[in-house]
Amino acid sequence: MGTLVVHSEDSPEHRYTICLEEESDSYFLIVDGKPYWEDGKLFEGSFDDVNDKLQELRAAENLKTF
Q: What are the tens digits of pLDDT across the range 6-61?
């Protein structure tokens, strides 16, 4: 048992990776090599939950103004 990378994608500014922790059967997000935390705790859940968060972060990145 261990951690598996199940999805990875790059944007112009970041690398997003969704991983599966096999022991807990829970997915979590890594941004630029660091686990993504929200409200003081690791953001984890189902694949759909984590993928939705990834898409939310990508959308926020696209809205960034220069």
A: 999 998 889 999 999 999 999 999 999 999 999 999 999 999 999 999 999 999 88
How far is it, in rounded angstroms, from Cα 4 to Cα 59? Answer: 25
Cα gap 55→3, rounded to integer Å: 22
State the pTM of this model: 0.88
Separation in Å, CA 24 to CA 9, 19, 42, 43: 24, 12, 14, 14
